[in-house]
Design a protein that fits this description.
Blueprint lengths: L12 E7 L10 H18 L1 E8 L3 E8 L4 H19 L12 E5 L1 H13 L1 H4 L14 H5 L11 H5 L5 H14 L17 E2 L2 H12 L20 H12 L6 H12 L4 H7 L5 H15 L3 H14 L6
Parallel strand pairs: 4-5
Antiparallel strand pairs: 1-3, 1-4, 2-3
Helix pairs in contact: 1-2, 3-12, 9-10, 9-13, 10-12, 11-12
């Protein structure tokens, strides 16, 4: 089997999973979990990472992180290699601790950061290790809802920023958002991953293909990337959304922004400018708000599904 394609660049955003060899436990006790967290802390300084969420399970761990340089491989080698060396010495063993290479999914940050953080924080609940995420000690959830328990190396401002400007208000909204996932009303955000490598809108994946995959002769690891649809223009999307919803619909601007972000590959700044000068931070909040509402507002979900079918047919103009 071919090795997974690794896409690295400054500012890349990833969901990383690393599992124990043969699905065996990678921790023997509390001290081991603390040690792995210390490697996370050191990697933040050494490699310029921003760790936005984490969760330590018995036989694997999750990270949601951002790289300031194209150095994901070096950073993960440092974390996993360093921890393996420590674990082997502490437990008088030798050999591999982790199962092959870690899994790293390149993620479209603004579209998926919040939902992926929720997915990570609810992992212990899905595994029946606890009923509520705050009951589990080995995830970043405490760092989000209890600022005084937040480790210095954990970055929460990006994701909380999608929920408001004032930190305590954002925390309350984030708690509500996470707890919606306990009701089973939200879909797995990783379902849309293309070939296990990229998670994002067609515009984002198209950008990845053009910038990082185009020069690679063998792309069997990314078959879906080669089959992307052409990107529609911002103007065509705005016209399509208005044609279906009507000019007076309260969600008109937000849904238009959402689809422009999903399909065009334009920056948040560019999308905000064509929607009346909306600020970048506000565009991010619009996207996050729609993702949250779609889990509870069936009419909104139906309208977006209807628009999605039309927008998907559009060609670049």
């Amino acid at each position: 089997m071919a090795r997974p394609l690794r896409i690295q660049y400054a500012g890349a955003f990833y969901h990383v999973t690393s599992r124990g060899n043969e699905q065996r436990a990678i921790f023997s006790g509390i001290r081991d979990r603390q040690k792995l967290c210390s490697f996370f802390s050191e990697a933040v300084v050494r490699y310029g990472l921003s760790i936005h969420a984490y969760c330590l399970m018995d036989n694997h761990y999750h990270l949601l992180l951002e790289t300031s340089e194209p150095n994901l491989a070096q950073a993960l080698h440092y974390i996993n290699g360093g921890y393996t060396g420590y674990y082997n010495r502490a437990n008088e063993r030798s050999g591999h601790l982790f199962q092959g290479r870690y899994r790293a999914i390149l993620v479209e940050k603004d579209a998926y950061a919040a939902t992926l953080s929720r997915y990570i924080h609810l992992n212990p609940c899905r595994a029946n290790l606890c009923k509520r995420p705050e009951e589990y000690l080995w995830s970043s959830y405490f760092g989000y809802v209890r600022p005084e328990r937040r480790p210095s190396w954990l970055e929460t401002s990006l994701i909380l920023g999608y929920f408001g400007y004032a930190e305590m208000d954002a925390i309350r909204r984030y708690i509500t958002f996470v707890e919606e996932g306990l009701k089973g009303e939200v879909t797995d955000p990783l379902r849309g991953t293309i070939s296990g490598v990229v998670l994002g809108s067609n515009g984002f994946v198209d950008w990845v293909k053009e910038r990082f995959v185009g020069g690679i002769k063998e792309t069997r690891d990314l078959p879906a990337v080669r089959q992307l649809r052409p990107r529609p223009s911002v103007q065509r999307i705005m016209e399509t959304v208005e044609g279906i919803l009507g000019k007076e619909d309260v969600w008109l601007r937000d849904i238009s922004i959402w689809f422009c972000h999903r399909y065009t590959g334009k920056t948040l700044k560019e999308i905000g400018e064509v929607h009346g000068g909306v600020r970048v931070s506000a565009v991010s909040q619009v996207i996050g708000r729609l993702y949250r509402r779609m889990g509870v507002d069936k009419k909104l979900e139906q309208n977006i599904s209807k628009i999605d079918k039309e927008v998907a047919r559009l060609s670049t103009v």
